[in-house]
Specification:
The protein is mostly helical and 414 residues long. Helix content is 51%, strand content 9%. Strands 1-4-5 form a three-stranded antiparallel β-sheet, covered by helices on one side. The longest helix has 35 residues, at 379-413.
Amino acid sequence: MARRRQPPHLIWVKPKFTKDGRIRANGYWAIADGTTRISTGFGLEFREQAEAARLQYEVEQHAKKSVHEIVEERGRGVRDVLVVDLIRFFMERHEAKIQAKSKTKLRDYLNMMERLIKFWHGKTVYQINEKTIAEYQKKARPGKPLAATTTLRELAELKSIINFGIQKGLCELRGHIIDWELPPPPEPRMTFYTRSEVAKLVWTAYRRKNMAMGRPGVGIYTSKHIARFLLIAVKTGTRSERIETASFKNLPDRPWIDLENGIFYRAGVANKSPVNKRADPVRISDDLLSHLRRWAKEGDDVVRSPRGVGSTRKGFFNLKHEVFTKDRAKVVNRHTCKHTCASWLMQKRVPLSIIASYLSTTEEVILKHYGHFSPDFHQEINDARKEARSEIMKKAAAAKKKAIGKGPALEAAE
């Protein structure tokens, strides 16, 4: 049976001497990779630096090989396949989709992948279990455990990566069942803004100034774009990224607000027809449309800060802590605007089918999460109680009347 090839490792190459005892070549640490010897350039006392050079060599050689070659060398069993190899394979196969993400989402996605790679480095698929999953939540981010929602999202992504590798034949379970003991999903936030809260947020954002920017003594309004974002989000229930990238011009790669017809194509030109369930086109209400037509005179970008088009996350975070108490600011965010839109529409007795279509979701979701905000919520129960109570009162009144009418007749008979 052939011996299994050793991974790259350090060997000490002894110094060479001439016949008269003089040093002809110094000794050095070399990387042995099969029959190949690569000098690290470090002497006997620099073992740590030589180990670092060996590790760098391994990384470079690993990057040159395809995941299929690596799997063929090590095997396809769950004890042989490394998690990081499947992560790499997934990212290579989905490179175009990953690069198409917005700047903010791409940064968040790469940060997530960095955490996954650092934690699962050196671990095989076999080592994915309840214990390592719990450790991931505690240790993936140094100094601070991951939130339950973040842990759930990142481990769900890892699960899809592993399943993709299994589907493509890079890993064979052979009867093994991966213990995906994911943390339970948190309770959904059903908080929504009151009209006075939205007014306060918008008014504060419009008035906020930075006196260090712009003309001396005049300053510049730094948060008008946050106010615009809030008005659009609350009145259309659109997700943050689609509002932030929206344009008044019909561009192929951005959501488009058609001012002439009053339609917000939230999925962009490529998806004008309502086929994308997450971002169907919606009609813009007259009050919001008047604002949008005025804003369009200032430029093509719907939401643009003094620094350009970008995320409103940081600006909104600062704004909510300025306007609300600490406890209130902790439970609301930009996505609360979508809950607010749905809740306000329910309070106005808008039909479920219309709300579901407007928010690109299903009637079941609307009824489950927002149905109790309707003034008619379980009204049938209340009506039934009233009717039953009315019947009881009528019967009681009739019995009393009968008893009163019977009294004089008895006295006359006596």
